[in-house]
Amino acid sequence: xxxxxxxxxxxxxxxxxxxxxxxxxxxxxxxxxxxxxxxxxxxxxxxxxxxxxxxxxxxxxxxxxxxxxxxxxxxxxxxxxxxxxxxxxxxxxxxxxxxxxxxxxxxxxxxxxxxxxxxxxxxxxxxxxxxxxxxxxxxxxxxxxxxxxxxxxxxxxxxxxxxxxxxxxxxxxxxxxxxxxxxxxxxxxxxxxxxxxxxxxxxxxxxxxxxxxxxxxxxxxxxxxxxxxxxxxxxxxxxxxxxxxxxxxxxxxxxxxxxxxxxxxxxxxxxxxxxxxxxxxxxxxxxxxxxxxxxxxxxxxxxxxxxxxxxxxxxxxxxxxxxxxxxxxxxxxxxxxxxxxxxxxxxxxxxxxxxxxxxxxxxxxxxxxxxxxxxxxxxxxxxxxxxxxxxxxxxxxxxxxxxxxxxxxxxxxxxxxxxxxxxxxxxxxxxxxxxxxxxxxxxxxxxxxxxxxxxxxxxxxxxxxxxxxxxxxxxxxxxxxxxxxxxxxxxxxxxxxxxxxxxxxxxxxxxxxxxxxxxxxxxxxxxxxxxxxxxxxxxxxxxxxxxxxxxxxxxxxxxxxxxxxxxxxxxxxxxxxx
Length: 578
Prior knowledge:
CATH topology of the domain at 24-231: Immunoglobulin-like
Strand content: 15-25%
CATH class of the domain at 24-231: Mainly Beta
Largest sheet: 8 strands, mixed
Distance between the termini: 47 Å
CATH architecture of the domain at 24-231: Sandwich
Helix content: 25-40%
Number of helices: 17
Structural class: alpha+beta
Oligomer: single chain
């Protein structure tokens, strides 16, 4: 008995140790992504993309989706790979936005593999802009996003800015040297490393300014896009500039036949052509006859097992209203519901709705990841730090992503749309059973009511203010009157959050407002789809520069009427995945 109990305890301990790995459920671990980018003078790019990953499952023979490749006009130069047994016969399939990467061999669990893809962007990726009256070119390109966390990602840029030939060491590229070139960058403290160095070009002897940017421990679907601006004299093209992909092919020079070569008469040439035609027709006839007579042999093709996707039909995860708002792509209501949850628990007090100002009442309260991110973003004046909005949404993503790893997105969307749509009915039924003198803001229905786009319109009134005949009864009217303050509270709260978020991404809204029309009509039509996808999924400016111009541009602009199609396109389709 004692030995049996010991065995059971050891087994239980091993299972408990294995639980974190089982709970994580990632198919692979993305150990490193290294991107080497040479910026050409015409605004095109020569990109060398290296992915290093460790297999965590039984194995696979492909990467399901890599992309989106931007711009669409690009050329795949090479695709190679290596594993523990040597080189891999890597090939790409699909395109031009996304490719399936065939590894040429099956991976093994706990082994590390490396895939290298080199391609050229055959159109300029720069936009014209001005900084203090001086013309500049702003880059609008970023590496692929992944649906998995990344341990380390580095991007190296070799710029078309020539340095003095005597600069050969990184230490010589001082801030004064960089400033003298006119190069402008964003705040470099947002990255773990930002290092300048010289890159010599051996054929020409020129030395070019380069820099390396590194970020560690990127969350799923994180976008890494270092923003920099080159003086316009270095990049004279824009995205709209037509760039010839290949030079004109010169006419080949036809050399005269060498002296002493065999020259045939016109009759001999005619006879030779006739005989050649007859022989060719005879061979083709025999080939056609052989193909018709021969019956194809039946061959066994083993069924292909797709293990790269984990979506299970009918699986719906357990999401609260906050997580549902994020899944639906509505960043405004995601933030608003976090604020409401904190207010309901007494952690914060809503001092003002427009602008949104919060008073922190319980700084030591127990908080989850996204609640803590929001509390940390509260400034001394009570407003939310706009630069921390992406951190709050990333914290929500870190909670939602593990729940969605094997979920059915369509079934999940339909389930929670029904939950949202029935929130009003549930509240009205509750009110009919237990009429309240005022709305109970702490009711569990309230977050779902706020998340709903439905509004109680009530019955049309007569000139005397009485309801028309056939209208709702007294209880229904009372319920509607009870809901009205909730609607006002929800509108005020979301409006305050919207002002905070829109201030963060005002430049994006200015650029896309013309596409949807000005005013609230265009905003309302795409509120839950394009607006929230651009604001949260594509990490603000990264969406404008990387996604809106190509892949997400067509997905968002054509699918926004489908309400959730754009969310799926931006959150799921526009990232690389195994």
